[in-house]
Amino acid sequence: MAEATAPKPSSSVKLVLLGEAAVGKSSLVLRFVNNDFQENKEPTIGAAFLTQKCNLPTRTIKFEIWDTAGQERFASLAPMYYRNAQSALVVYDLTKPTSLIKAKHWVAELQRQASPGIVIALVGNKLDLTNESSGSGNALGDDSETDAAEGENDDGDARKVSTAEAKSYAEEEGLLFFETSAKNGTNVTEVFTAIANAIPETSLKGARGPGATQSSANRTEDQSRVNLTGPRDSASKEGCAC
Amino acid sequence: MFNFSSFVQKAQSFIDPTQALNISPSDRNPAKSTLFRHQFRLPDSQTPLQEITAEITISPPVAYSPNATQGEKDKDRDRGYHYEGKLHLSEAYLCFSTQPTSFLQSASTSTSSGFTGQTHGAGPGGNGFTLPLCAIRRVERLHSQQYQFALAITTWNGLTNSPTNDAAKTPALQQKITIQLAGTRQACERFCDGLKKGLKGGVGDVGKLKKVVAECYSEYLLQQGDMKKDGKKDSIPPDAGLGMIFRYPGDHKKLRDRSKMRLWGEYLRDYGRNVTLIRQPTFHKLIRVGLPNRLRGEIWEQTSGSLFLRLENPMLFADTLAKYEGRDSLAIDEIEKDLNRSLPEYPGFQSPEGIGRLRRVLTAYSWTNEEVGYCQAMNIVVAALLIYMSESQAFFLLSTLCDRLLPGYYSTTMYGTLLDQKVFESLVEKTMPILWDHLVKSDVQLSVVSLPWFLSLYINSMPLVFAFRVLDVFFLEGPKVLFQVGLAILRINGEELLDATDDGAFISVLKSYFSKLDESAHPKSENAKLRAVTRFQELMVVAFKEFSGITQNSITEQRMKHKDSVLNNIESFAKRTSIRNLGPDSKRLSVDDLGSLYDRFYGVLYERQQRSQIIMEETERRDRARRAKAAEVVTGLSENQVVEKGRVGLGPSPTLMDYDGFREFLAGMARWAITDSPSSPGKDKNSEPEKHSYFGNSVRRREVSLSPWGYGNPEPADHEFMQRLFRRWDVDMNSALTLQNVVTGLAHIKGKGDIMGSITYFFELYDDDGDGKVDREGILRISEALLFLSRRGLEGSLTPSTSMTGLSEYEADNPNPYQPEGMQGNTNERFLSSVSAFIRRCFEYADPDHPQNKVPEVEESTSNGLADPDSFGIGDDSDEEEDLLDLGDSSPARGKKPTGIPSIPAASDGSDNRDRSVSKAHAEAANAALDPSKPLHITLPTFRMVVLADELLEQFFESSFPASFRISDKMIAPASSSSGSSLTTFSNIGFSRSNPQLSVGGTSSAGLVPPGKGLRGVLDNIVTDGMRVAAEVRRRMDEAQKELEQNAVHRPDDDEDDEEGYDEPRTPGGNAERSVRSEDRDLLEGADAEAMSLRGHDGVSELKQQGSLSPTTTNAGRSRSPSVASSKVIEFER
């Protein structure tokens, strides 16, 4: 494992996508990785694995994305995938209030079971189905509509989860928050960039360190994982640095 | 005593069915009938009935010649293939295999689990056949020159062959199997009798057979061949999948489909087709090289056994669709989401035709197996199947997949998938240690890669053509194929995988491998032949040669090994998730408490389901036993997959708790929720004591295991308070509680921690209409509930009293960690008086519903009662005292003379009635407070005030009521022994030991009666039975009102009942038990006596003179209570 010295430091970040079925997890990834959108995407069995680089001013982050299956019964497989994840995208469908509830469950699960210090972003997808799909972004600060008022938008707005509601929840839990559209690309790269920025430098540095020896310890079981980055060590990813 | 407890434990291990079905892996060997069904791929309805060694001769098809001479027949028999093996007969099938098998129930377990062979019980191994009896056209008994028993079987092979124009003509070719039975003449005769019987039964199924066979492409194929010979035109082929419309995947020429078809055509012509197919050595080879497209579906169906499922109920698919047409379900929603995204690369699934088929198959299956419903990946598998088979065929094959080949894969917890991943990992570790080490080192989680392989049968991992080749073998040889192929993939890519250091690299190595499966495995080889070998062929060779050691057995073994840990993981995940999602109310309870609640809740549900299952099976078994001969009834209770059902980790488990479950749940948690008079088993024994002693243990065992509460568990009480609690918690009004309901309910009781909340809660429980008022009835019910809740002593530290010094010696022996026995006892007594005061005060401060019912009257009545205690003489009490005397000879020394105080505490509401009658009779005073014609009520503030006026009650609401729900800890030993002892006083010593602690192993001494504990037993009884007396009195309230005087004469014969109740349990038990019991009783009696003497000043005589208004129901033990109660009241009054 040669320490390649790259002009800009590069590190891998494991990211896991969680959320109810058909909220658009895979589509978000597809948009981010291939800048593409498919109307009929095969359901994810178990999980799909993709990678994509994200260039920050000071460094390059290589996302190793685990896109998980959303069907409820696959939930018990999830620990396998969020194991060692440094970041997570918890996705809900902002036209479907139940999906936010499910998202909250995932957040709780991650906060308790995943690596400590995991960076979690809450993402409301399918912004294209609402009126403000024009890419107003996540900073809908003045959105004063209350929960009660939501049902009243009958001007073709399918939104059922208000920005304010989700946002206040995200703030409470200390999550990044975005509303996105995988279909027209709104905010998708922003999500990943924000995550990349939020990953603490220290955990990235750790990745270059002793790596292999720690990773075998990691293997034993999830419970007492201390080092966030354990296995993200090896030479192979050094290649991506340039 | 020691004998006793050890006996109890022993008995439990015999009796407790749940203990028997767990644990040792050897217990988990699948039942023989299961092995049998798996081996021959038979439906679950089949059991192995007969088995005999036989030699079969498969003659090449011969022209039909009814007039053939004997000599010719003999000659036929000598030609053809000979196989030796075992011939099996089930209800509707005749099966033969050359592999050593033994599934007869009489065979020992070792033979059934130890047999080996190519498929190891997972598929039709060896050469042979699985022949539905309805497919047998004729059986002749051959005269054999070798004095052997020989049968010639003619099948309905080519049933549909008969040309339409001359139906009379018999098929040109007949399939004939000759069987020589080896065995004693008797055995042979018996087998033939069985066969005859089966054949008769099979006649009716010929219609089904025709229908099923008509859908098989082989029929068409062979018919077609004949017709071509005859120069006739084509008929319409049966549906062989979407491939007929949209082309089959892959290149026909490359697949050499035509020559495969020809080979298969020959095979089928010679050795039977679909149901009559005989497995010859070439059969396996033909499958390994890949099936021809049009026959693929049918052979899958045949080898997997789904054909037989279809034969059993050919219309099931259509019927199911018709039955549920237009109905909606979660599964259907999920299916709809995925229809457009199942094998989208195959043109058939971009067309409405293909999507429609997929929808129908998935939907129909989701209805027939609602537990599984729909799982993503099923869409992909079914889509693949539909390319080669009709909807109905795919439907049955999906059933076979889910139920048998991939057990638990698609269940709601997907435990099968996770389990097989574990198995796979352990196989990798075993077979490729270096690669495994590398994976561990670089922290690559193998299952991340391999899970989709298994879950979707390689269909979306490999190119379709190759995935189908894997499926060909998979359906024949069973799930081990998935493992073999998986291992081979890793082995072949081993070098490259060793270079991959993270998940990403690992995945990409395999991805590129899969994409190059059709390329040459040795592109640089000089040898042209070697060059021609594709990577896929190499894969198959490695899989089945190099990993031939991977057998169904080794996989089963590994599954057993990992099963528990996988299930535990799933369950702890489910638990975690479910606890986390319990909502805001749950925050009032600690996480530990929630965890224990969860365990308790699902524990109760699980056990109840187990029990009902076992009871059902038992009942069925007994029914069968009644009908049939004993020999046919032996089918095991021990078919694990059945019995283990309901475990959370295995998939959908019950989530709703009905009232009975709730009672059981409470009984596991709160002492007061355990009944004092376990009924069912006791009654059972009462009614047929003789039977038990004659039949001894085995019968008894069944008897006990049929108890609806399970053997090792205490029978829960059934009290109005519990009903109220249930209704209160049942916020959704569906007469069942979810975990959420239970947690919320408990959170409100335990979580508040302030006395006001707890008082309010209690009040609201009894405020039926929610108007903030509790009427007289309610007050009485509250007091009754207070007694009910306190009858086993109170939790927490109520202010101890100082007087009971005499008990200290007993305390020394008493393991009770939190409260000394004596104090507890004393507190109990004091609590009784508190409750009595409570009633009195309630009435005192009650608001009349009508202004004219004034409070003073209440007081008047009270004073009335007080004024002439002797003359009222409270019937019950004196009566009770007498009973008490009968039981414990020494003077029951609670000294206070019972008096006619209006509100007798223990009797709660009953006391009221009694009181009322008394006062009416003697004082004629208008007892307004107790007069039902003058309604009154208390409000919450009043209630609160009354409670707070009494120290004990205050403490009760503050601490002991909430604390009586012991969520986390098991009930501690003394509690159990106390309940035990209290029960022993009653009729059912046998039951008293069944405390939950026992089954959990909490205390070993449940059977031992600590010396001090008798006292508490007495007290407990007093309280309980006071209530019972009260209830009885209340029942007779109206009478009592009218004919007061008569009451005094009622003197029950309860003693006898009591004796009976006491003795009966002894009868069935063995000697040991009996002796222990009497010992126990002696001890108890002694303790009782001592308890009495400790307590009292007064003599028997005094008590005896009291008139009796006695409740008829009570027995000696019970009837004591009111007297104590009343005596306490007096104490209080003074």
Automatic annotation (TrEMBL), chain A:
Signal peptide: none annotated. Residues 132-165, 203-242 are annotated as: Disordered. Residues 142-155 have a biased composition (Acidic residues). InterPro entries: P-loop_NTPase, Small_GTP-bd, Small_GTPase. Keywords: Nucleotide-binding. GO terms for molecular function: GTP binding; GTPase activity. Transmembrane segments: none annotated. NCBIfam families: small_GTP (TIGR00231). This is Vacuolar protein sorting-associated protein. The gene is VPS21.
From TrEMBL, chain B:
Residues 876-886 have a biased composition (Acidic residues). SUPFAM superfamilies: EF-hand, Ypt/Rab-GAP domain of gyp1p. Transmembrane segments: none annotated. Residues 290-478 form the Rab-GAP TBC domain. Gene3D superfamilies: EF-hand (1.10.238.10), putative rabgap domain of human tbc1 domain family member 14 like domains (1.10.8.270), Ypt/Rab-GAP domain of gyp1p, domain 1 (1.10.10.750), Ypt/Rab-GAP domain of gyp1p, domain 3 (1.10.472.80). SMART domains: TBC. Pfam families: RabGAP-TBC (PF00566). Residues 1103-1126 have a biased composition (Polar residues). One of its GO terms (molecular function) is GTPase activator activity. It comes from the Eukaryota. InterPro entries: EF-hand-dom_pair (IPR011992), Rab-GAP-TBC_dom (IPR000195), Rab-GAP_TBC_sf (IPR035969), Rab_GAP_TBC_domain (IPR050302). Residues 799-827, 848-926, 1040-1134 are annotated as: Disordered. Residues 911-923, 1040-1053, 1074-1084 have a biased composition (Basic and acidic residues). This is Putative GTPase-activating protein.
